[in-house]
C-alpha cells in the first residue's frame, strides 16, 4: 500500500476505529517504531564505538569518551521540539523517511573515523553531535503515534513505541558485543556497516508504508501555549529524571563498567569485552520495562506508577552510592561482590527508569484530556485541542528529558575528574530521585490537581482525577 495523506482521522470514533482506522494506526505504529528503533541505535552509537578505541591508538581518555556521549545526548535533546513540529508540518511519513536517511551521514563519518585513527578531537565531537539527530526521531515518532491512537489505548501504544525504540540502545550494544567477540578490535567499522543497511531499510519502509496525518498542530498554540501550563514543567522534570536516567546510563554504563574492570587488574581489551557482555542488559531490560510501564499505567494510573518507580530508584541509587563509598575506603580492592552490587543497582535503575518513561508519558494525554473538559468547544474541537497539546508536550518533555542524560554523563565525568571515582555522582542521583518522588506525591497523589474552570465549563471532578 502506498502512502496517503489523511485529513480526517478521529481515533475516538469507535465505529471508524473498528472499520479500518485501527489497521491504519497499527501500520503507522509499526513503522514509526522501526524508524525510531534504528535512529535510537545511531544516537547511542558512540557508547559502543568507544569500546573499540583504546587510548594508546586514538588518544581519547575516559573523560573524553563521556564527553562524546554528552554531546550526542545534548543534540538529541535540542532537536526534539523541532522534530515534533516538522512531523506536524511535513507529515509523519515524509519526516520519518527524511530523518532516517539523513542519519547515513554521521554513520558513514563514524566509520571513516574508526578506520583512520589519530584524527583531532573536534572531528569526533562533530560526528557525535550529528549522531544526536537520531534522538529527535524519538519525540517525532511518539507524537506521530499519539495522534493515531484513542485516549484509552495511548499508554500501551506510546509504551510499545517508546519501549521498542529504546531497545535500539541494547541492539547496537549487542551488535558491538558480537563484533568484539568475533573479530576483536580489528574491524569496528562493521558496526557502522550493519546500521547503514538498516537505515536504508527503515527509510524505504517509511516511504512505502506510513501515512501523512493532519496532526492539527500547525497553530502557534503548539509549544508556546503549553509553556504557560504549570503541569508542563512538572511533567518535563519528572520525565527528565526517568528518561534522563535511562539514556544517560545507557551511554555511561559500559564506560563505568570498563573503568571498574580495569581497577580489578584486567587489560583494556579484556575490560572492553567484559563491559560489553554486561552493558547491553541494562538498556534491554529497561526498554522492555517501558512497554509494561505504559500498560500498567493505563490500568493503575500514571502518577501512582511514577511515584512507585521513583521510590524504587531511590533504593537502587542508594545501593550504588553506599557500595561505591565502601570501595573508596578500600582502594585497589574491588571485589566480585562489589561488582555484582554495581551491576544489580544499575540494572534496577534501568528497569525502573524504563517503567517511569511509560508511566510519565501516560500522564501527558490525561492532563490535556482533563483540561479540555473545561473548554467551551464542540466535541470534535475539544479532542483536536487535546491531541495537539499532547503532541506539543511530548516534544517538550522528551527534549527536557534527554537533558537529564546530558547531566548524568557530565556529572560522572566531573566526578572522575575531581575525585577519581563515581561516588559523588551516585549521591547526586540519589538526591534527584528523592526530589522527583516528593514532587510526584505533592502534585499528583496527595491531592489531584483541579483543572481550571471557565464560564459554561463542563469540567467535573471525575475528569480531574484522570491523572491518578
Automatic annotation (TrEMBL):
<dbReference type="InterPro" id="IPR036259">
    <property type="entry name" value="MFS_trans_sf"/>
</dbReference>
<feature type="transmembrane region" description="Helical">
    <location>
        <begin position="424"/>
        <end position="445"/>
    </location>
</feature>
<feature type="transmembrane region" description="Helical">
    <location>
        <begin position="157"/>
        <end position="182"/>
    </location>
</feature>
<feature type="transmembrane region" description="Helical">
    <location>
        <begin position="229"/>
        <end position="254"/>
    </location>
</feature>
<dbReference type="Pfam" id="PF07690">
    <property type="entry name" value="MFS_1"/>
</dbReference>
<keyword id="KW-0812">Transmembrane</keyword>
<feature type="transmembrane region" description="Helical">
    <location>
        <begin position="305"/>
        <end position="326"/>
    </location>
</feature>
<feature type="transmembrane region" description="Helical">
    <location>
        <begin position="274"/>
        <end position="293"/>
    </location>
</feature>
<feature type="transmembrane region" description="Helical">
    <location>
        <begin position="95"/>
        <end position="115"/>
    </location>
</feature>
<comment type="similarity">
    <text>Belongs to the major facilitator superfamily. Nitrate/nitrite porter (TC 2.A.1.8) family.</text>
</comment>
<protein>
    <submittedName>
        <fullName>Nitrate/nitrite transporter</fullName>
    </submittedName>
</protein>
<feature type="transmembrane region" description="Helical">
    <location>
        <begin position="332"/>
        <end position="353"/>
    </location>
</feature>
<dbReference type="InterPro" id="IPR011701">
    <property type="entry name" value="MFS"/>
</dbReference>
<feature type="transmembrane region" description="Helical">
    <location>
        <begin position="121"/>
        <end position="145"/>
    </location>
</feature>
<keyword id="KW-0472">Membrane</keyword>
<feature type="transmembrane region" description="Helical">
    <location>
        <begin position="66"/>
        <end position="83"/>
    </location>
</feature>
<feature type="transmembrane region" description="Helical">
    <location>
        <begin position="392"/>
        <end position="412"/>
    </location>
</feature>
<feature type="transmembrane region" description="Helical">
    <location>
        <begin position="29"/>
        <end position="54"/>
    </location>
</feature>
<keyword id="KW-1133">Transmembrane helix</keyword>
<feature type="transmembrane region" description="Helical">
    <location>
        <begin position="188"/>
        <end position="208"/>
    </location>
</feature>
<dbReference type="InterPro" id="IPR044772">
    <property type="entry name" value="NO3_transporter"/>
</dbReference>
